[in-house]
């Protein structure tokens, strides 16, 4: 078991053990316990803190304070724990006879490998891509109004069923847009919905695949860390499918 004390300047913040290390999981937007090598935060009570050497954060959903995380022996941990439980004020003593060396500021991005950072960024972009597809698309139907349709896995299965109904000759097909009551759509409108949904998903998947190739081509950690979903991808990393879609949409 490893033991730590959290220091902010000359102030004692709290204590922790290796069981207090945390990382943010994008898939479910939750904080998980992890080992020291993957740690983005250390939890002390209900609050989160970071040390400079930890893995870079990948979300702005977690509030934290930067501290110095000092490894200590169990005896010191037990003494501090007893003081904390009694509500005693704990002072951090500094050596008076020796000059205090300033800790150099280390960019946390430089503390991880380029390959690790690429993998983390690709996972983050994959999550954003899937979330974008799930959130859905807007489409203008024959009545001139714009409707929004989510595109979860179940929604995609529903569209396959609707396509079969159109192919079988159905002319009044029940379906519903987001936040709308179920109503009958014409075969023409159903075909429009299916076409736009297919184009929307194809673009997102093609864009992510090109973005993944671009990320893997990068040579600098700071460039990898700066990648955002939706950014322009250099043409040499675009697939023929993505180039065609961008050309049809005027480069958007």
Provide the helix percentage: 25-40%
Alpha-carbon Rg, integer: 26 Å
Largest sheet: 5 strands, mixed
Q: Let me know the number of strands.
A: 12
- Which structural class best describes the helix and strand composition? alpha+beta
Low-confidence stretches: none
C-alpha end-to-end distance: 53 Å
Overall number of domains: 2
Q: What is the H/E order?
A: EEEEEEEEHHEEHEEHHH
Q: Main sheet: which strands, in order across?
A: 4-3-5-6-7
DSSP strand (E) fraction?
A: 15-25%
In DSSP terms, counting alpha (H) and pi (I) runs of 4 or more, how many helices?
Answer: 6
Shape: elongated
Summed over residues and divided by their number, the pLDDT gives a mean of 89
Describe this structure in words.
There is one protein chain. The chain has 252 residues and is α+β, with helices and mostly antiparallel strands. It has two domains: 3-108, no CATH class; 114-248, no CATH class. Helices cover 38% and strands 21% of the residues. The chain contains six helices and twelve strands. The protein has helices at 74-86, 114-135, 153-167, 187-217, 221-225, 240-248, and strands spanning 3-8, 11-17, 21-25, 30-33, 41-44, 47-50, 65-66, 68-72, 137-140, 146-149, 172-175, 183-186. The strands form four sheets. It has a five-stranded mixed β-sheet, with no helix packed on it. Strands 2-1-8 form a three-stranded antiparallel β-sheet, with helices on one face. A hairpin with a 2-residue loop joins strand 1 and strand 2 (11-17). Helix 2 (114-135) runs antiparallel to helix 4 and helix 3 packs across helix 4. The radius of gyration is 26 Å and the shape is elongated.
